[in-house]
Structures are given as C-alpha cells and as structure tokens.
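Deliverable D5.2: sample structural annotation.
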Amino acid sequence: MKDLVKPTDKKHFIEWFLNHYELKNPEAEWLLQYLAQNEQILARVHFTDHFRNLPKAMLLSTTCVQMTAFKYYKNKRVTSDVEKAFLDVHNHPEEDLYVTLYFSDRAACPEYSAVLEGVQSQPAVVSTSEVLMALQAELWLGTLERQLQEQDLRVRLDQALDTRDKALFNELSAQWRAFFPD
C-alpha cells in the first residue's frame, strides 16, 4: 500500500470505478463525482480498507455485493444520509476523508490497489471473541449471499422454462453449472 496517492490518480480511479460499477445508492455516486471534481477535497481523500476508528470515513458498496449501501462516520456518529455527508465534506474541505469501497473482486482489483493508502488509526482494543464473532458474521453473510444467488437463479430458470426462452435457459443453465460445478 502507498503512503501518498496523487489527486489525479484518485480522480482517474473514481472515474474508472463509476464506469465499471453501479453503487447501491445513486446519491452516493453523485457524491463520488463531486469528490473527483474538487481537487482540494480530493487531496484529502484516502482510499482505505480500514475505516474503523478514523475521525471521518465513508463506506460505499455496489449492487454486486451484500453490504450496506452507504454509511458516513464522523467523530463516532453514523449516518446513511448522503446529503448530510455531502454538506459535511463540502463545509470542511480541510479535513481528511477516508473512503472504503465494497465491490466484487476488490481484493484482486489492480485499479483499487493502486489508490489504497496505509492508514494509521488509533489502535482499537479488539478481543478474540469480537474477532471470532466478526468472522462468523462474514461466513454467515457469505452463506446467505450464496443462498440468495441460488434462489434467484432457480426463479430465473423457471421463468425461462415457462416462457420457453431456450437461449435464456441455456445461458442460465451455464451459470447454474458454474455455480454448482459438481
């Protein structure tokens, strides 16, 4: 991870991201566009995977992941109101803003890796039970997401059969075989 990313690189990343992904919250897309157009604020924007215990952080997710659509954290207060977040960012351009994005394959995304920054936050005291609960929650959410995808695919296959749409059925069958390789 880098310690400093140029504002132009952040701007190019945001533009790339918005061209390749759809945010769950359309207003959040507008907020990202605003960040990309304001070089003073963009210089204070830091992309990070570690938003906890930071003074001002924003979490955004795309339609392709099962995460909360938008959260804005400032001084231990949380809101899901994009307009409130915008007003705070707009009124306080001198403050650092830490942005975490959730989208499919983000861990393997070179564009995202290029703008990630190492962030020094106040160390949080995390117990072993909290770590285990977080891991269990992640596993549960992963299982739930897979079940929802399977259910959606079943419904779409049934609809393709009902409408006798052979091309769609073949496409969905290929997805089913990829989903259940055995």
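Annotation notes: The domain at 7-115 is CATH 3.40.1530.30 (hypothetical protein tt1805). The two ends are 38 Å apart (CA to CA).
The annotation will be released with the project's public dataset once the embargo ends.
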